[in-house]
Amino acid sequence: MTSSVEPRFLRVHERDNVAIVVNEGGLPAGAKFASGLELCEAVPEVHKVALIDLAEGEAIVRYGVTIGYASRAIARGSWVHEGLMKPPEAPPLDCCPLATAPPAPLAPLEGYTFQGFRNPDGTAGTKNILGISTTVQCVAPTVKHAVERIKAEILPHFPRVDDVVAITHPYGCGVAIDAPGAAIPIRTLRNLALHPNFGGEVLVVSLGCEKLQPVRLMPASELPVLAGEPSVAVLQDAKQGFGEIVANIMTLAEKKLEKLNQRRRVTCPASDLVVGLQCGGSDALSGVTANPAVGFAADLLVRAGATVMFSEVTEVRDAAHLLTARAATPDVARAFVREMAWYDDYLRLGGADRAANPTPGNKQGGLANVVEKAMGSIAKAGSTALVGVAGPGERVTQKGLVFAATPASDFICGTLQLAASMNVHIFTTGRGTPYGLAMAPVIKVSTNSGLKRRWPDLIDVDAGRIATAERTVEEIGWEIFSLVLEVASGRTKVWADHWGLHNEFALFNPGPVT
Ligand code: CA
Q1: 85-133 pLDDT, tens per residue?
Q2: What's the pLDDT tens digit per position in 222-257?
Q3: Does residue 287 belong to any structural domain of this protein?
Q4: Which end of the chain has fewer CB atoms at under 10 Å, N or C?
Q5: 408 C-alpha vs ligand 1 centroid, how far in Å?
Q6: Is 174 buried (19+), middle (13-18) or exposed (0-12) by CB count in 10 A?
């Protein structure tokens, strides 16, 4: 296939001295580009080629920034891989520019709507789900048993309810529940229960003797945002065995289902969307195809008044100085620095740093190090001002572009973004993953067309058409924006929901276990 197609590379920024080979299967030694550049060795697909002779120690520039230094002289036309690059230091946090270059607001986009479920607290759901929260892992198998029976015996009588989702997890007991780190998993569980797709109706299942008591999970001060009282089933209250335990959960569930079944989709402004962005299985095309297209869609969503959140601390750490400059106010910039510093300490205590981020698959996909990955990753965040910062598991309430601090792990990030009240998820991938979430639809965007061809029934949008020049970044961006409105309205089902591919909840617990 490569021999019949003209050799092509993609260069992102005019200052770049490396570019990405985009031909499928890579290119052999001797391949000649239209610019006259000739490869002096084979370069794999989406890997970097040197556009000039690089001296030892010279900066290797991609995205207009230094992504590493040549560890020896590299001839023009060579494959520039991880083994030839020394990574730069992370930008120091104590001299980040604070809100020095906030972008001017873009023109508002009026009139965009979706069909969503209006909630008493003003939020809007994109699905109608019975949520069952749990206080402790001890109850998880019992809840799983009950949910199977609810789905088989009760749910068919309530056709307007989409699903029953149990929030099960390993937390709740055997943990130092008053340690500072415990605040994160506890508020994550609480905010998951308050998710807009649960409609303010939530059922809590408790064991009875656990450290995370129902009142601590859902303090009275939080209850006004719920439409009804959260009903609590306590397993240890049962006097007549497992049958009574299950029957009690099913009775409470039926009451909730009756209420949820009265919900109807109504026209909601696009500003009710809370769209979470994430990438997983990134490659060197992520930063030139899928992520810029998602970034364009993010700008459209912000212009339409929506909340757009990006996350994954280790993937933005190397761009910290760029993002603090983009903050709307110095306070937002300082909050961003605070989250970066907290995570630096968290990694240091674990004997690691942000360089632990890239995976073997990332590296095979042409990403030499975390700096290159970060520069591609932040393209998702578009070009608008950063207006808010949330800690891990906190609820996001601002409109506009918000940073919700999370680890980069797909499932932990997804769980924390759900806790932040994300009602649509956009996920970019180069290597491919069947990732999905039960609580909110996940739109998967491929960075390359080969992945979409291999997995036509898992990938929702092919941004690889940007690399092949069939589409522009703007065209794919509009396509993603339109799909978000369709999916939020329940008119289009994402592939993960079609197959029922829903990853487990994964809490972020930086606190000690006992
Ligand atoms: Ca991720």
Answers
A1: 998 988 899 999 999 999 999 999 999 999 999 998 899 999 999 999 9
A2: 655 565 666 899 999 999 999 999 999 999 999 999
A3: yes
A4: N
A5: 4
A6: middle
Q: Would you mind telling me the total number of residues written for the chain in this entry? A: 514
What separation in Å is there between the alpha carbon of 93 and the centre of ligand 1? 23
Strand-by-strand arrangement of the 307-310 sheet: 386-390, 400-404, 307-310, 274-279, 424-429, 442-446, 461-462
DSSP assignments along 110-154, one per residue: -S-EEEEEE-TTS-EESS-EEEEEES-GGGHHHHHHHHHHIIIII
Asked if residue 446 and residue 318 are part of one domain, the reply reads yes
**Residue 279 C-alpha to ligand 1 middle, in angstroms?**
5
179 occurs within a structural domain: yes
Ligand 1 midpoint to CA 278 (Å): 6
Q: For residues 219 and 214, which has the higher predicted lDDT (pLDDT)?
A: 214
Using the CB atoms, write b or e for 283-303: b if 16+ within 10 Å. Answer: bbbbbbbbbbbbbbbbbbbbb
Distance (Å) from CA 414 to ligand 1 centroid? 8
Task: Choose one of 35, 59, 88: the last residue of a domain.
Answer: 88
Q: Which two tokens stand for residue 180?
A: 């500072």
Q: What are phi and psi of 243, to 5 degrees?
A: -60, -40
Radius of gyration (C-alpha) of the chain in whole angstroms? 24
Count: domains in the chain:
3
Q: With CA atoms as reference, report the closest residue to 341 among 362, 324, 326.
A: 324
- pLDDT band of residue 1 (cuts 50, 70, 90) is very low
Task: With respect to residue 134, please indicate whether it lies within any of the assigned structural domains.
Answer: yes
280: CA distance to ligand 1 center in Å?
4
Give the pLDDT score at 227: 59
CB 273 within 8 A of CB 114: yes
